[in-house]
Every structure is written in C-alpha cells, then in structure tokens.
Amino acid sequence: MILPSNTNPKVILFDGVCNFCNFWVNFIIDHDKQSLFKFVTLQSEKGRELLTEFNLPEDKFDSFILIVQNRVYKKSSAAFEITKYLSGWTKVFTPLRLLPRVLADFIYDIIAKNRYKIFGKNETCRILTKEEKGKFL
After folding, report:
1. Of 2, 12, 14, 61, whose CA is between 20 and 30 Å from 25?
2. 88-101 tens-digit pLDDT
3. What sign does the CA torsion over 21, 17, 106, 77 have?
4. Sheet holding 65-68: strands in order across?
5. What is the pLDDT of residues 5-53, one digit of tens each?
6. Domain ranges (residues) in the chain
7. How would you class 123 by CB atoms within 10 Å of its CB: exposed for 0-12, middle for 13-18, buried for 19 or more?
8. Least confident among 18-22, 65-69, 99-103, 105-109
9. 74 strand-pairing partners
C-alpha cells in the first residue's frame, strides 16, 4: 500500500473498537489545525496492509502506531511524536519526552493492557463531517 501522496504524510493506526483510542483520535482531529494526520484502524484492510508493509504484527492492537516518512513510532514514542504537531495546550506533554523510554512504555503498556476494562469498547463511531472523512484512509 502506498501512503498518501501529500508532501509529508503522517498516518496514525489505532484500535478502532477501543474507547480510549477513539477518544485520542477525536482529540487529535480536534487539535490538528493543519490537517497533518491521516487515520486508519488496525483492524481494517488498509491498516493490515500497512502493518504488513512495515513488518509489524497483524494481531497486536495494543499500540497507537505513527508512520512519518516511512519511520514507525510505537507506544509512548508515537504519542509524544504526535503531540509535537498539535496546536494549543498539548505542548504541556513535551517535558514527558524526557522520561526514559522504558518507563514511558511501561506506563503505556499498563494502560494499553487494561484499556478495555477501564474504558470499554465502541459499538459506534464518531459521525464524521465531510472534511473529517478525508482524514481516514
């Protein structure tokens, strides 16, 4: 699968049934004032194509994945990289990048492992505007 042909595609793969993941996708959509990000669910055909293309497991949906210029970011690295491009108060997360990656990923893994128990699963998705539909692959 070829990534979108804009000058610098930033593609976020996410667990489409996870309420917590969907909260963050909605948050990113609302704070992505430059429309830099494209989204695709890990469970979708396009999501699986990207996982295969980047040699990522097709059966593990426990991480946001960010692909920027053919570079793959996972777990806390993806989250911190995403915040660099968002507008507003999200810059408060920047100092958290100083946490050792092992610690940041450990915290990320605890949340990811328990996300369905804590936040539940989606039965429905956000109703997208015409403009927002263009943000999804």
Report:
1. 2
2. 777 777 777 888 99
3. negative
4. 37-41, 10-14, 65-68, 71-74
5. 555 679 999 988 888 888 889 889 988 988 899 999 888 899 999 999 9
6. 10-133
7. exposed
8. 18-22
9. 65
User: How many Cβ atoms are within 10 Å of 15's Cβ, its own excluded?
Assistant: 24
**Helix or strand (DSSP H, E) at 24:** helix 19-31
Beta-bridged to residue 40, according to DSSP, are 13
Amino acid 89 reads W
- Hey, which bits of 9-125 come out as E strands? 10-14, 37-41, 65-68, 71-74
Q: Angle 112-82-16 (CA atoms, 0-180°, nearest 5)?
A: 45
AA identity, residue 130: K
Place of tokens 């976020």: 12
